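EI: anyone free to look at a 737-residue chain?
SC: sure, send it
EI:
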Amino acid sequence: MAFDIDMIKQVYENLSARINAARKLSNRPLTLTEKVLYSHLAAAPSKPYERGRSYVDFNPDRVAMQDATAQMALLQFMQAGRPKVAVPSTVHCDHLIQAKDGAKADLNTALDKNKEVYDFLSSVSNKYGIGFWKPGAGIIGTDSHTVNAGGLGMIAIGVGGADACDVMAGLPWELKFPKLIGVKLTGKLSGWASAKDVILKVSGVLTVKGGTDKILEYFGDGADSLSCTGKGTICNMGAEIGATTSIFCYDQKMAEYLKGTDRTDVAAEADKVAEHLRGDKEVYENPEKYFDEVIEINLSELEPHINGPFTPDLAWPLSEFAAAVRKNGWPSELEVGLIGSCTNSSYEDITRAASVAKQAVDAGIKAKSEYTVTPGSEQVRYTVDRDGYLGIFEKMGGVVLANACGPCIGQWARHTTDPSKKNSILTSFNRNFAKRNDGNPNTHAFVASPEIVTALAIAGDLTFNPITDSLTNKKGEKIMLKEPQGIEMPLKGFAVKDAGYQKPAADGSKVKVIVSPESDRLQLLAPFKAWEGTDLTGLKLLIKAKGKCTTDHISMAGPWLKYRGHLDNISNNMLIGAINAFNEKTDSVQNQLTGAYDAVPKVQRAYKAANVGSIVVGDENYGEGSSREHAAMEPRHLGVRAILVKSFARIHETNLKKQGMLAITFADKADYDKVLEDDNIDILGLQSFAPGQQLTVMLHHPDSSTDVIKVNHTYNENQIEWFKAGGALNIIRAQLA
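SC: here you go
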């Protein structure tokens, strides 16, 4: 949706009064994060909120949904009874285009294969006042990477479709008031180091759990020196450390970017209130007093990093990476290098990578690895093509893919003769969990900046260091790559013929949204049943997941994306990637009704048919990764009653609560080991379910012995009502009725 300058003016006009009220309430200087959050409170507080504990209602300014999530979000919104969305909202068709043969062919294939989904999204958007970005327009949406907008000084938070539905329906959005991590950046990037290396470094420091329930606020002279899109890259990958979001202060780089992207009037309004778009001076002079944690990075000393494999927080300085490859026995041959996606597809990213590629082309060297480029938007693609950069990649042997998520989310028809082969790939994406990109658990995926990816793809070797090592051309000449050179903004400005935006109808009352009852891709939703008012007894253990269990393990993407609008069909992928702690296998659990082992969804459907409840037990940071609400809806739909884990990732825990699921954690994490494969399980204390009050779990073992353990929860009073009603949407529907 085109920005609404009148709405922006109104927000900024109210900003000063709200921030002054917040400062008076707190009686101290404020961080930028606090200024933004306090200025969007749904109701005036009587006392400061306790970071990491207090749940707070906010009034967001905008909702943006990607096509895969939007299907379920809008199917839910259709039940709410509103004629139009309450806040400006958009749908972006970026998830359903599979990367295979190149941009044009892949887009045409997607338009054909996904026609009924695109038609549904277009018509439902048209009816309810939602801006619609057509397939191929570019990447953004209600996802864990909405946080990219922190590069423009926004508190932009990735959520599931249920949260988006709430906001579109006009209800406040609830969030646990986050703790704050201050990241002080000094110095200035140079050489091969890039903005991507800042977040790769931070990921290594904080790990995939270190940002949970926290917001990262970047500040300092080093922060101001970074390009606006560089800031966006850092914020984007903050999702990989579990951060609620990340944010930079408004500065000259942001103003330049706004002006360069036809938003001069927005920059003018921001300049008027610039003092309110940065944290108070006292905060940055003494950050330890105002942040819960402070990290300091000298950009002048920052080395390029490569993170992985299999987790985005295993951080290796480039100078140490080759030795790590050899020591760990990772495949050193680099089969594919992939740049772009929502994370690293800016004009600056493309020009820096192209400056490396051009050196190879000029020396007569083609990339030894397969090499792909994924532009982030049609505007960027059109502009870099106009300026000749895409042609450089093609001369090097690269392939330009559609403006979509593609291989980053598993939408990749990889060219391989052995889909289970042990191999290595290097991307400029965010995530590198096992099977994430191509479905192969033996693919060692590493993450780096686009320029490092390009250099190593040219060499075809993970142990190649472009700072110290040389390449050899056909003449036998040794070639040293010079450090990359980039351009932050196109000298001739951005250009585009068709950005791909469809404005909604002024009056959508006569627009029809048709979902075929025979469709295997779209299915109208039926409300979930309300809680029966009793404790949960006789639950069967569906699976005890061992180790990392991300939303990709719970509800895979890739080929399953086509079922994102059909809850029953996509439920056939529920937990098929999780490792069963009792047999170390995936998609193999014991059916306690028969004693036989079968696929997880099949066993759960058997329990549902027999009207038997079940429970899932998990490890640390259960549900990390994507905002995928299907990972919460599928267990709910198939009859799982509770998820009991050592700890939850933030978005997934919220998604479970929204769907009326019981999300609980071990009070003593060692109790995880007490859960046996064929236990019968009771959850007691629900009739007095209250905030801060533990519940009791009884494990009835096959030998007739019993373990009684205590479990915790983070439900507040409103969330307990969601549980009782069978889901937040049931309450919304009743209120609007």
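EI: The first strand starts at residue 55 and ends at 58.
SC: 👍
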